[in-house]
Amino acid sequence: MDDLATHLRQLEEKLFDPTIRSSAQAIAGLLSPDFREIGSSGRFWDFDQTLEALPREKPDRGVTSGTDFQLKLLAEGVALLTYQSVHTRSDGSERKTLRSSIWRLEDDGNWRMVFHQGTLAA
Predict the structure, then answer these.
(1) Residue-number span of the structural domain to which 70 is assigned
(2) Calculated CA dihedral for residues 70, 75, 78, 81, nearest 10 degrees
(3) pLDDT tens across 39-88, in order?
(4) Which residue from 107, 97, 89, 92 is spatially nearest to 38, judged by alpha carbons?
(5) What is the number of domains present in the chain?
(6) What is the CATH number of the domain that holds 45?
(7) What tens digit of pLDDT does each residue of 84-113 get?
């Protein structure tokens, strides 16, 4: 299970990378076509909306990192990854968000995210 936790953490952290976020093709490789998200803004996103929105984000977004990653298997081939992200803006201010992602092992043998939720930390 440690190998899976490491693998899913690495996949999750790819979504922090501005290079990945700027490529609809790279994002599509990480998200399942039935992907859904409830963002920290309270907005609902589906796969197509995410592929359209992420590449259009402003280039100077600061740096995002994750801490306290925990993995729980929900069923064979389905895993819940929870963690806290810290987004440090270019002015040095920070935004902390509690995050949860559900990853599923797809038919092609790749893990893809099917659900994500971010909640601003108190």
Answers:
(1) 2-120
(2) -10
(3) 988 999 999 999 999 888 876 668 889 999 999 999 999 999 999 999 89
(4) 97
(5) 1
(6) 3.10.450.50
(7) 999 898 888 899 999 999 999 999 999 999
